[in-house]
Design brief:
six-stranded antiparallel sheet, alpha+beta, Arc Repressor Mutant, subunit A, 2 domains, Jelly Rolls, about 280 residues, four-stranded antiparallel sheet
Length: about 280
């Protein structure tokens, strides 16, 4: 069960999805299904009632907000309580890994790359997830390439909603606001000299505590986040302007052009000059 925020977001973003079935189910009291083995990946989001699921021998009580992710071959027992209905949205889906990195494409079949979510999780803020599932469910009654396209987009938004919910659960409200404030500062002042000490002081935390909380929430260290922010801005300038590499370097916060070029190549895979030439040829 992967809930490391950076790893989870990275993996889910590398997949392409096909939705096989979606809907809303109401199970009456005393309903049960024993010993089933799913043939596809699927997820449930419980909206009403209560029940119990046993996944590969591990028992979970489920209630509104419970997210259950089933994987092929998992041995599943499912049942409602004797007095309660159980209601949930469900989506059955398939996926493959398809992503580009530093100009190279990678393809993997699902049996090579396990889905990073498996088992039972709690979603604290259900409203957005339910809204997305309502739209997916509504579209499942229609057909066409544009409908399938929209369903996939909504499903990706749903997965992103789950990731953000996990983020929020990892930190208290006050801490989240502090981290977001320093991110906002970086976004608006990346051209300036910014040190870890500057960011920690703005957060009113020690450097080590701030770094630990930032990485827990974002998945990057503060300086790694700032570096990627600067390189993303540099890519925009190189692709859409004719200014020299030295000027690009200075505009994104690097006085040392050589250091900027080394950092750019490490992250992007090519030098700033090569990147600029490739973008303008395209």
């Amino acid at each position: 069960m992967c809930k490391n925020n950076r790893n989870l977001a990275t993996k889910l973003n590398q997949f392409t999805y096909s939705l096989l079935l979606a809907g809303y189910k109401v199970c009456p009291p005393t309903w049960h299904k024993e010993g089933s083995k799913p043939s596809h990946h699927s997820l449930w989001l419980i909206t009403k009632g209560s029940g119990k699921v046993v996944l590969d021998g591990e028992t979970f009580l489920v209630a509104p907000g419970s997210l259950v992710v089933f994987t092929p071959g998992m041995i599943c027992n499912k049942k409602t309580t004797s007095t309660d209905f159980l209601e949930f949205y469900f989506v059955r889906f398939a996926y493959s890994m398809v992503f580009e990195e530093k100009g190279r494409w990678y393809f993997r079949q699902p049996e090579e790359v396990p889905f990073p979510l498996k088992g039972v999780y709690m979603i604290k803020n259900m409203s957005k997830a339910v809204h997305l599932l309502e739209q997916i469910n509504s579209l499942s009654k229609r057909r066409g390439a544009d409908v399938a396209f929209e369903q996939r987009l909504l499903f990706q938004q749903l997965l992103l909603t789950f990731i953000k919910d996990f983020h929020s659960q990892a930190l208290s409200g006050d801490t989240k606001q502090v981290i977001e404030a320093t991110i906002d500062y970086m976004v608006h002042h990346y051209q300036s000299t910014i040190t870890l000490n500057d960011l920690a002081e703005r957060a009113e935390l020690s450097k080590s505590h701030y770094s630990r909380l930032f990485k827990k929430y974002i998945g990057y260290s503060p300086i790694d986040y700032l570096t990627h922010l600067r390189i993303d801005r540099a890519k925009e300038l190189l692709a859409h302007s004719d200014i020299r590499i030295k000027e690009v370097s200075q505009q994104v916060g690097y006085e040392d052009e050589l250091y900027f070029s080394r950092t750019f190549k490490k992250i992007v895979g090519v030098s700033p000059t090569q990147f600029s030439d490739e973008q303008k040829q395209g």
